[in-house]
Amino acid sequence: MKRLFILSASIIFLLLSNTIFAQHEEITGLWKSIDDETGNPKSVVKIYLKDGKLYGDIVKLFRKPGEDPDPICDKCDDDDARKNKKILGMTIIKDMVLDDEEWNDGEILDPKKGKTYDCKLWVENGKLQVRGYIAFFYRTQEWIRYTGEI
Hints:
- By secondary structure, this protein is an alpha+beta fold.
- The protein has one domain: Lipocalin.
- It contains 1 helix and 8 strands, in the order H-E-E-E-E-E-E-E-E.
- An 8-stranded antiparallel β-barrel has the order 1-2-3-4-5-6-7-8.
- The chain starts with a helix and ends in a 5-residue tail after the last strand.
């Protein structure tokens, strides 16, 4: 009976570990952010794990002719350390924690508007769902995997 319990507990642990690992693998990597207002690609964000939390850094910008090729976050709040820093290389997703099948309790920065929002991330049908919200108001973008050059 004791061996059966230990075997059952070991199997459950392995299944849970594989599920958590799969969720990490599914969400980490390169994602192309798509502007939900225009439908145009904005950037490539590298999603990665650090100390058990999820983060996202901008690693590529898609700029139109005439736009500043290396913009700064001049609209960020004065008390934000990212104020007047280059957007390329900036960490825009911070401190996300896995809760069931979604990443929550972190924040996301919209460097174009300089606004920071509470954030929720999850993968659905192979696309990253990125929801920024304040209280009951939210906006969700769908990001797609990026396989091109950085």
